[in-house]
Amino acid sequence: MSTLGVVVQVVLLIVVAPYLVGVMRQVRARLEGRAGAGAGQPWRDLRKLFRKEPMSPAGSSWVFVAAPAVLVASTLVIAAVSPFVATVSPLDGVADLFAVVALLLLGTVALALAGLDTGTAFGGMGASREMTVAALAEPTILLAGFALSARVGSTNLSAIVERGQQSPGAVLSPATLLAAVALAVVVVAEAGRLPVDNPSTHLELTMIHEAMVLEYAGRDLALVEFASALRLTVLLGLWANLFLPWGVATTASAPALLLGVVAFVAKVAVLGAVLAAGEVFMAKLRLFRVPELLAGSFLFGVLAVSSSFFLA
Amino acid sequence: MSIGWALVGVLVIAGLGALGAVATGSRGRALVAGVSTAGVGVFGVLAGVSALGGEAFSKTIPQLLPLSEVTVTVDALSGLFCALIGGVAVIAGLYNIGYSDGHGSRTGQSLLPLFVAAMILVPAAGNVTTFLVLWEVMALVSLMLVLAEHRLRPSVRDAGVWYAAMTHAGLVAILLGLVLFASKAGGESFTALRDADLSTTTRSVIFVLVFVGFGSKAGMVPLHVWLPRAHPEAPSPVSALMSAAMVKLGLYGVLRVGLDLLGGGPRWWWLLVLVAGGVSALFGVLQASVAVDLKRLLGYSTTENMGLILLGVGAGGMFAADGNRTLGSLLIAAGLLHALNHAGFKTLLFLGAGSVLRATGLRDLDRLGGLVSRMPATTALFGVGALAAAALPPGNGFVSEWLLLQGLIHGLPGADAVVAVAMPLAVGVVALTAGLGVATFVKAFGTGFLARPRSEEAAGAKESPRTMRFAMLVAAAVCAGLAISPASLGPALTRVLEALPTVRDGSPLEGGVTLRLTGIAGSISPVLILAGLFVAGLLVVVLVRRGLPRRESLVWGCGGTRLDPRMEYTATSFAEPLTRVFDDVLRPEHDVDVTHHAESQYLIESVRYRQRVDDRVEAALYPPVLAAGNKLGAVLSRLQNGSVHRYLALGLGGLIVVLVVVGLTA
C-alpha cells in the first residue's frame, strides 16, 4: 500500500507540473490585463513539441543528447523519494535533504554542460551564470536544512515533515521562520524565477536558463520544458511541506492519500499563484546584484541555525 | 601474506625496478619502471589490506641505522595509508607504461618505484628516526621527480626551488616537534612516546610544530604555495602520485601524532585544525574555480579536498575532546573516507589531464575543447572523475561529503557556544566549497573537453594508447566501487579508529544497500539513487525518444555567419562572474593595451586584454619572508670569504660555544 503512495505521488507530480506553470502564467496574464491562454496551454505546447523531431547542433556530442534525460531523471528520483503526498514510503531513507539538494544540482550541471557543448556564446554564457547562481545558493540551502534538522535530529525529509505535524507550534518558531525566508529566496533562484532569472525573456543580457537551452528543439525541448516545470513543482512542494506540513499522509490508507493529494495540489497552486502575483510587481535584478540577494539569504540561514540553538 | 613479507616485497621490487630502469635503454625503460611501480603498489596494497583485516606487525632491526635502530610497526591506521598509496601506485605505474613510452628520462623513470616504496614505508615507521629518514627520502625522491622535465620548461626549475624550500621548512618543523617529543619522553619508539607523561604545554608545543610540518605537506593554506606549482610541473603519473597519495601522509602524520601518540589533547588543537582546514578548503576551491591551467586547477582542488578532510578531522577531534565519541568517530571516519575517495578521483583526473597534455601539449583550458569526439574514452573517464570531484551523486565524493555534513550538523544539541558558532560556519564553508567545486569541474570538463576545439593542437588530438586508457578505467572502477558500496568499508574504518584511543567507539557506519550511521538518524542509499537515475533515464529514453530520427542542424549564430571557435565561451569567460563576485578575495589583475593607428590617434589598431589571477595569500605573506631571508643571507655571507683560516676560526669558536653551553647546563 505504501508503494501505491510513491506511484500516486510521481504520477501526480508529472500531471500537475505543467498545469502549475499554466496557472502561474494565467494569474500573471490576468493581473496584467490580458486574457491568457488558460492553465492547460503548457500541456498543449508539450504535446506539440513531443511530435517534432529532435535536433542537434553541428559539432555537439552525446552530452547534448543525454542532458535532457539526466535532467528529467534526476527530478523524477526526487519526486519519488521526497514526502510530497505521504511520509510513509518504501523509499524513505534512500535520500535525505542533502541528497535531494545534490540531485537538483546534478540536473543543473547536466544542462550547463549541454549549454557548453553547443559551442555557442549563448550556451556558455547561460552555463556560466547558472553555475554561479547555483554555487552561491548552495550554502543557504544547507544552512536552512541544518536549522530544520536541528529541531528533529535528522535530515530525513519524512522525519522533518512528521515532526512539523506533531508540534504545529514549532512551525512558528524563529528558527523555522528564518529558515523559511532563506529557503524561499533559494527556491526562487533555483527555479529561475524573477527577480533572479526571467523565464519568459530571450534577451541576451538577462538570460540565464533560456540561454543554456537555446539550441534545443522538438522532443528535446519538450523534455527540458517539462523538467523545468517539474523542478518548479518539486521546489514549491518541498518548501510547502517543510514549512506547512499539514495534510501530508502519514499512513498509507486510501483516504489519507486522497487528502494528501488534495492538500498538495492546493498548497502548490496557492504558492504558485502568490509567486506569479509577486513577479508582476518585480523587475529582474542585475546579474551582479544576485549574489547580494543570495548573501542576504545566507545570513538568514545563519540566523536560523543560531536561533535554533540560542532560542531553543 | 604476512605484512612483513609484503614490505620486503615492496623493497625488493623497488630496488630491482630502479636498477632495471637504469640499465634499460630508452625503449623499454617506461615498461620496466611502470611494471615495477605497479608491483610495489600491489605489495603495498597487500600489506595494507592485511593490516586493515586485523593483522599487526612489528619488527626492530638494530644494526641498520647508526646511533638508532630501525623499527617497523604496522597497525590498521598505517594499513589504510599503505593500501591507499599502493592503490594509486598500481594505477599510476600502469599509466606510466604508455605515458612515458620512449621519452622518459633515466632518472625520472628509475626513481618512480623508489618514490612509491618510500611513501608506502612512511606510515609503517615505528620510531622517530625511521619516520624522519623515510619522510626525507620521500621528499628528496619526489623533488627529483618534479624536476624530471626541467630541460623542457624553465617553470619546472622554479617549481622545484619552491617545493624544496617548503618541504624542508616542513621537515624542520616536524623534526623539532618529534625530537622534542622523544627527548621529553625518554625514548624514541612510538610505544615509548605513547606512554610518555608530559605537561600540557609541552604537548601543545609539539602538536603545533608537527601540525605546521604535516600541514605544509597536506597543502594547507598558507603553506600550500608549493603545491599548485610542483604538482602541475611534474610528469603526470608523478602528479597523480603526489596529489592523490603523498599529501595524504600529512593527514597520516596529524592523526598519528595528534590522536594516537599525544592521545587527543585539548579542544583548541582541533579547533586550529578545523579552522586551517576550512580556510584551505575555501581558498583552494576559489583559486581552482578561476584557474585556467588544467593541472593547476587540479592542484588547487587538492588543497580544497585536503582542507575538507582536515575540517572533518578537526571537528571530530573537537567532539572527541569533549567526550562525544559518536560524532568524533563519525567525523574522522568521514575524513578518512574522503581521503580514499579523493585518492581515487584525483588519480583519475590527473591521469586524464596527462592524456590531454600528451595528445595536445596543452594544459591551458582556454585553448582546449572538442576532445569529446577526438578522445572519447579519455573524455568519458575524465567525466567520471569530475562527477566524483564535484561531490554530486552518484559519484563517490558525494558520499563522504554527506557523512561530513551529517557529523557537523548533529553536534548542536548539548553544545556550548564555541561549537554552536563553529558548526554552522563549518557547514557554510563545506556548502560553499561544494557549490564552487561543482562550478569548477563543470568548467574543467565543459570547456576542456566539450564544444569545438579552440586551437589547432586540440583539433589534432589523438586518443591515448591502450595501457593509459586501461589505467584510467581501473581508477574509474575504484571510484565506482567506493561510490556504490561505502558501507562495505565500515569494518576497516572501525579498525582504523581503534588505533586512536580517544576516538574509538564501535563502528561509525554500517548497512548494505543503505548506508546508515550509528547513533544518528541518517541514511542514504547510493546504490538505489544510482538505480533510480538509471531506471528513470531509461524510461525517458524509451518512452519519449522512440520513433523520430535526430537531425543535425546549424548552430544559431544570431542571423550572422557561421560561428568561429573564437566566439565560444572559454574557461576564463566561464569563471568571469565568479571572479567578479569574489573580486575582493581574488584581486585579479587586468591589463589592457591599446595600440593606436600610426596615422591617427583616434583609430585603434589593436586591443590586447590580459587577465591574471595570482595567489593572493602568497603575494601577501611570502615576499616579506623572502626579503628577510635574503637580508639575513647577505649578512651571514660576510662570515665566509673563502679563506681556510676563517673557517678554522669559526669551527674553533663554535666548539668553544658548545663546550661553554654544556659546561653551564651540566
Tell me briefly what this model is.
The complex is a heterodimer of chains A (312) and B (666). Chain A has 312 residues and is mainly α.
Distance between the termini of chain A: 38 Å
Strand content of chain B: 5-15%
Query: What's the β-strand tally of chain A?
Result: 1
Radius of gyration of chain B: 26 Å
Distance, first to last CA of chain B:
51 Å
Q: Show the largest interface.
A: A-B, 89 and 83 residues
Protein name (chain A): Formate hydrogenlyase
Membrane topology (chain A): Multi-pass membrane protein
Pfam family, one (chain A): NADHdh
InterPro entries (chain A): ComplexI_Subunit1, NADH_UbQ_OxRdtase_su1/FPO
State the main characteristics:
heterodimer, A: 312 residues, mainly alpha, 12 helices, 71% helix, B: mainly alpha, two-stranded antiparallel sheet, 8 strands, transmembrane helix (chain B), NADH dehydrogenase (ubiquinone) activity (chain B), transmembrane (chain B), membrane (chain B), Hydrogenase 4 subunit B (chain B)
Give a description of the structure.
Chain A: GO terms for molecular function: lyase activity. Chain A: It is found in: Membrane. Chain A: This is Formate hydrogenlyase. Chain A: The chain crosses the membrane at residues 6-24, 61-85, 97-119, 170-189, 221-244, 256-281, 293-311. Chain A: It is a multi-pass membrane protein. The complex is a heterodimer of chains A (312) and B (666). Chain A has 312 residues and is an all-alpha fold. Chain A has one domain. Chain A contains 12 helices and 1 strand; from the N terminus they run ααβαααααααααα. Chain A has helices at 2-31, 41-50, 62-81, 97-117, 121-152, 157-166, 168-171, 174-190, 209-212, 218-243, 254-280, 290-310; one strand at residues 55-57. Chain A is globular, with a radius of gyration of 19 Å. In chain A, 64% of the residues are buried. In chain B, helix 9 packs across helix 13. Chain B has a 3-stranded antiparallel beta sheet. With 666 residues, chain B is mostly helical. Chain B has helices at 3-23, 29-52, 76-99, 106-121, 128-146, 155-185, 190-195, 200-217, 227-233, 236-246, 248-261, 267-290, 294-321, 325-360, 371-374, 376-389, 396-409, 417-448, 456-459, 466-484, 490-498, 526-544, 571-581, 583-586, 616-636, 644-665, and strands spanning 57-61, 70-74, 509-510, 515-517, 523-524, 551-553, 589-596, 604-612. The mean pLDDT of chain B is 91. The longest helix of chain B is centred in the middle third of the chain and has 36 residues, at 325-360. Among the domains of chain B are: 266-539, no CATH class; 617-665. Chain B has 26 helices and 8 strands. At the A-B interface, strand 1, helix 3, helix 4, helix 5 and helix 10 of A face helix 17, helix 18, strand 5, helix 22 and strand 6 of B. Strand 1 of chain A pairs parallel with strand 6 of chain B.
